[in-house]
Every structure is written in C-alpha cells, then in structure tokens.
Amino acid sequence: MRAALILVAVILAFASAAPPALAVEPGEILPDAAMEQRARKLSAELRCLVCQNQSIDDSNAPLAKDLRLLVRERLLAGESDAKVMDYIVARYGDFVLLKPPVNSKTLLLWLAPLACLVALAYALIQASRRSTTSATTADATPLSSAEEKKLRQILEKS
Fold first, then answer.
1. Sequence-ordered list of residues with C-beta below 8 angstroms from that of 53, at least 6 positions apart, any chain
2. What CATH class does 2-96 carry?
3. pLDDT for 56-92, tens place per residue?
4. Is the pLDDT of residue 27 over 60?
5. Complete DSSP assignment for the chain
6. What gap in Å lies between CA 35 and CA 20, rounded to an integer?
C-alpha cells in the first residue's frame, strides 16, 4: 500500500513539473531556428481568440493555428517583430494581446483589479470598525437591576 502511494506521488510530481505542451504542429515549424524562435516569442504574446486564456502557441484551436501561420508567413516575408504585431493588432484589436497596452480603451482593464483591492480593504476596515464598536458598546452598557439580580441567582446556583 505504501509503495503504491509513493508511486502515485512520484507520478504526480513528474506530471506537475512537466512543461506545458505546445500546440505547434511539425508542419508549422520554420526551418530557420532563429526565425522559429522569433515566431514562438510572438506567438506567446498573442491570445487565442477562441480559448481566450491561452496563447496561440499553446492552443489547439483552428483559429490559433491560422494566427500562428500568419505570424510565420509575415516573418518569412521579412517583416520585423513590431510590424507583425502591429499588423495583427490592427486586424484583431488590442484584445488579441495577452498583455494589452495601457491606453484610454484598456484603462478599466488595468484599474479594475486595483479598484477591487481598494473596495475589499474598505469593506474589511468597515467590518472591523463595526465589530469593535459593537464590542465596546456591549462592554459599556451597564446591567439593569433586574439583570443583576438574575445574574446573582445564576451564580449562586452553580
């Protein structure tokens, strides 16, 4: 039994340490290693428009494959990395970027996490103040004479 648990732990350790499988198919790989490295770098920065939380380099979606091929095609045409990215952004918008630029269109996207943290901090402070105030109020309120009499009776019985 113990050996089985160790085997499962080892398998899980290797599985979690494995690098993510890339969706790039052998037919897509460019013969020039430097050019392929540029294509992989650009693909890692582009969002799969189907999966949305994966880069096109990691996605198996047909649209991601089309974008990978488009990146490689433009690189083979002699365009710089910046020109390739500009072309794709012009065609698909800033949403295609995994890290969109900070501008007037994406300001809400960048500020939303900060606004959520500020709102959470405010809520925690208010909750803390309420609990402190109610505890202080409970401690400061004296017992009525009937409550004192009842308390004495309870204490005498025990």
1. 47
2. mainly alpha
3. 988 888 898 899 999 999 999 999 999 999 999 999 8
4. yes
5. -HHHHHHHHHHHHHHHHSPPPP---GGG--SSHHHHHHHHHHHHHBB-TTTSSSBTTT---HHHHHHHHHHHHHHHTT--HHHHHHHHHHHH-GGGBSS---STTTHHHHHHHHHHHHHHHHHHHHHHHHHHHHHHHHHHSPPPHHHHHHHHHHHHH-
6. 22
